[in-house]
């Protein structure tokens, strides 16, 4: 991965002039919040800063209403400011990442997805081992954001797997007690006709997620990660690769809320290889770790002969 040094010297996002509008907001918003909270909970304090304030139940009610409105304004300004700061940080990190991988940064408009979520915004497209890679954000709901780095790989055999950090939350979320009823309910609601049959087939291929995690025999790996797969041998082959293992460990050090998955409709045929983390990333180190993991898995699939013959690299 080439390291391209930006022409301009790096300037931290927060390096603002103390007299600028953003610097003023950073001072005024906390002051407004604290003053409004004090008036809302103890309006009698106004007597000390406004000697002419009449006091009384009616005056205190008005003071509380105004203080509540000021609190709402402070929360809104703070949320908008934080969101803009995160967007600037994300654009800076994604732009630097695009330069490193020789990719193209774009910003298509947000659009709804079939799952009532959204996708779009910043996007980095590049080529890795001759295959198109896309870095993007999506949200299954308006309140959630995920960063996804994905590639379509042509499989020569039917392999599906998923690897996550072995955390308490993941053990619960990936348990059969959760997935079995979820898949059963989804199957009942798949509908009829060609589209319903296609959804039913897709759901049937997801049943491996309701099975217990695989044990690889490597105690340290099994302690650190959860592995589920349709083909145990192929999954162990990928998980046991030293480069894949190292890349998994590096990403887990930076973000334990990640998911590595390989999912396809059928094989031989195209499958989606993805590395996903929660949130809208503005951290180039995590982007680099996602890229390294995707590269390691693609190389392992190639060396193990899991790709279609015409898609394999010539050594």
Write the layout of secondary structure elements.
Layout: H1 21-41, H2 46-49, H3 57-101, E1 104-106, E2 111-112, E3 118-128, E4 131-139, E5 146-155, E6 161-165, H4 168-173, H5 176-188, H6 193-205, H7 219-224, E7 225-229, H8 232-239, H9 242-254, E8 258-264, E9 269-278, H10 284-303
Antiparallel strand pairs: 1-3, 2-3, 3-4, 4-5, 5-9, 6-7, 6-8, 8-9
Helix pairs in contact: 1-3, 9-10
What do these coordinates show?
Residues 1-19 have low confidence and may be disordered. This protein is 47% helix and 20% strand. It starts with 20 loop residues before the first helix and ends in a 12-residue tail after the last helix. It contains 10 helices and 9 strands. It has 2 domains: 21-98, no CATH class; 104-174 and 213-311, no CATH class. Strands 1, 2, 3, 4, 5, 6, 7, 8 and 9 form a 9-stranded antiparallel beta sheet that branches.
In short:
With 315 residues, the protein is α+β, with helices and mostly antiparallel strands. It has ten helices and nine strands. The longest helix is centred in the N-terminal third of the chain and has 45 residues, at 57-101.
């Amino acid at each position: 991965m080439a390291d391209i040094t930006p022409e301009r010297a790096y300037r931290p996002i927060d390096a603002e002039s103390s007299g600028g509008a953003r610097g003023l907001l950073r001072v005024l918003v906390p002051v407004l919040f604290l003053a409004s909270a004090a008036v809302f909970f103890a309006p009698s304090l106004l007597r000390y800063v406004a000697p002419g304030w009449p006091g009384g139940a009616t005056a205190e009610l008005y003071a509380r209403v105004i203080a509540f409105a000021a609190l709402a304004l402070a929360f809104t300004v703070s949320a908008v400011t934080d969101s803009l700061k995160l967007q600037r940080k994300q654009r800076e990190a994604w732009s630097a990442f695009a330069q490193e991988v020789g990719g193209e940064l774009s910003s298509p408009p947000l659009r709804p997805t079939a799952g009532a979520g959204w996708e779009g915004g910043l996007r980095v497209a590049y080529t890795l081992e001759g295959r198109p890679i896309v870095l993007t954000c999506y949200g299954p709901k308006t309140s959630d954001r995920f960063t996804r780095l994905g590639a379509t790989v042509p499989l020569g055999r039917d392999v599906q797997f998923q690897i996550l950090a072995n955390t308490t939350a993941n053990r619960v979320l990936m348990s059969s007690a959760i997935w079995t009823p979820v898949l059963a309910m989804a199957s009942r609601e798949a509908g009829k006709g060609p589209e319903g049959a296609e959804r039913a087939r897709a759901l049937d291929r997801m049943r491996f997620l309701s099975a217990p995690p695989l044990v690889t025999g490597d105690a340290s790996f099994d302690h650190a990660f959860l592995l589920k797969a349709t083909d145990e041998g192929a999954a162990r082959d990928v998980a046991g690769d030293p480069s894949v293992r190292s890349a998994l460990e590096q990403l887990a050090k930076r973000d334990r809320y990640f998911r590595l998955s390989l999912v396809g409709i059928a094989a031989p045929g195209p499958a989606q290889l993805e590395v996903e983390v929660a949130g809208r990333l503005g951290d180039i180190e995590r982007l680099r770790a996602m890229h390294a993991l995707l590269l390691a898995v693609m190389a392992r699939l190639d060396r193990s002969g899991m790709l279609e013959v015409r898609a394999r690299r010539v050594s």
